[in-house]
Amino acid sequence: MRGLLGSLLVWLALPVLTAQADEQLLGYWYLEEGAPGFTIDDVHIGALYADGTILNLSSDGKEVSSYTSAEYSVEGDEITFIYPRGSDEEPERHPYRYELIDSDTLLYTDEAGDYENPEDAKTYYRRLPDNAHLTLALLGLAENGQLEEAELEVDSDFGERSVLVTTEDPFAQFILFSDRRQAFRGQINRNGVPVVSTVSRHLAAFRLGTAYPDEAFDEMIMIMQESIASAQKAAD
Amino acid sequence: MIKVKRRALAIALCLFAMGVSANEGIQGAWFRVPDGAGPIVENAEYIMVMRPGGNLVEIFIDPSNRMEIFTESRFEVTGKDLTFAFPDRDQSHHQIGFEGEDTLVLSSGSDRSMEFHALSGKSGLWSAAVKLAESGEVRSIQLLNGDGRHILGAPKAARVYLDSVRGSILLLGFEGARSDGAVTRQGHDWVVPVSHDVVALALGPESFLPRFERLVRGLSTR
């Protein structure tokens, strides 16, 4: 339910804000650091929402963590990232000039900083590809406040990538199996309740533990499916 | 009709000639526990599967719960006499006795007799592991979660290593729970129930999946 509600709020907010913010800015952007092409192994993702909030998702190849308290505001070609500090302190503000090089490339330039090489003031972000199902699933969970911990294993026994996800409820753990080269299908039930579900054709979820409430797992699957589906819709 | 009868006759003759049919009660899986241990399969140190046709599948279980599997030995029954033929040891001869249906007692001359217990087909993970071992394609099986940790939510689990390194099988035992359904990968079985409370998962590349499929389908139809 929460997932549905979350997206509904975003949709409602959308028409109001597009007047001010550049609609093309909205969505998921990743900082390409290593080899070209997206993987979740070593990456920073910034999600810009229509209501002015930001979600950051970072991965160091072992752990994926999210940060949700930041906001942004746009004025002309300037974007300012606002990070809250203590309750009686002014938030930190980081202004950048932004430029959409093309629909999939976003350039931030730090004009306030003093750089010997002007290129160092520039940071390029790329739009998250819509087939990054694992990342989209984790973003969906984070957006719904459900990503407490995510341990990533690359090239594990279980395939290309697996992630042990701990949600808000510490008993509600599941493992995501991701393989972009493989198509998953089907479901396994235990005593009539789903325990292994395919989230998408490249992503399967394996519920852990027995203390896990049945509806909670279904809800997580729905949140992840929705997140993947809406990225697909946006790309079409 | 006539064809079928002839065939049945042929099989009967064949079995008689091999002496195996003499004691069908001995066919199946039997386990041995160390002296003083309770007669439950969790305590087993040795399991032998006496297959129709005289094939003996031997499973040795070490203290770290690793099962080593040997399929080269044979057995032969004549009346109450049982003979084991091992490729690397001398033959051994025994007298067959039963205590009830579930306990097999093998005695040989002056030696102490050996007691074996029948492995029930309802022994969940153990039955599945032993049936896989019978395929002759399994090198070893490691029983997991002796430390109390659940593997993929399963209270009992075992990893089955095959005679090639291209893939292995994870068996997950959910006692008392009934699993159904299947998850496929590239159209091949990937996670499937192999008995009412055991689920098997293929660990390995896509090229391993057809072999996994064949092995686990053999389990559920037997």
Helix content of chain A: 10-25%
Biggest beta sheet attributes of chain B = 8 strands, antiparallel, barrel
- The end-to-end span of chain A amounts to 26 Å
Classify the beta-strand content of chain B into a percent band.
Answer: 35-45%
Using DSSP, what is the number of strands of chain B? 14
- The CATH architecture of the largest domain in chain B can be given as Beta Barrel
Strand and helix order of chain A: HEEEEEEEEEHEEEEEEH
Rg over alpha carbons of chain A: 19 Å
Provide structural commentary.
The complex is a heterodimer of chains A (236) and B (222). Chain A is an alpha+beta fold and 236 residues long. Chain A folds into two domains: 17-127, Lipocalin (Beta Barrel); 133-235. Helices cover 21% and strands 41% of the residues of chain A. Chain A has three helices and 15 strands. In chain A, strands 5-6-7-8-9-1-2-3-4-10-11-12-15-14-13 form a 15-stranded antiparallel β-sheet. In chain A, α2 packs across α3. The radius of gyration of chain A is 19 Å and the shape is globular. Residues 1-5 and 8-20 of chain A have low confidence and may be disordered. Chain B is globular. Chain B folds into two domains: 19-118, Lipocalin; 125-221. Chain B has helices at 2-18, 125-134, 209-221, and strands spanning 28-32, 46-50, 55-61, 66-78, 81-85, 92-99, 103-107, 114-118, 138-143, 156-162, 168-173, 179-185, 188-195, 198-203. Residues 1-22 of chain B have low confidence and may be disordered. With 222 residues, chain B is an alpha+beta fold. In chain B, 33% of the residues are buried. Chains A and B meet through β13, β14 and β15 of A and β12 and β13 of B.
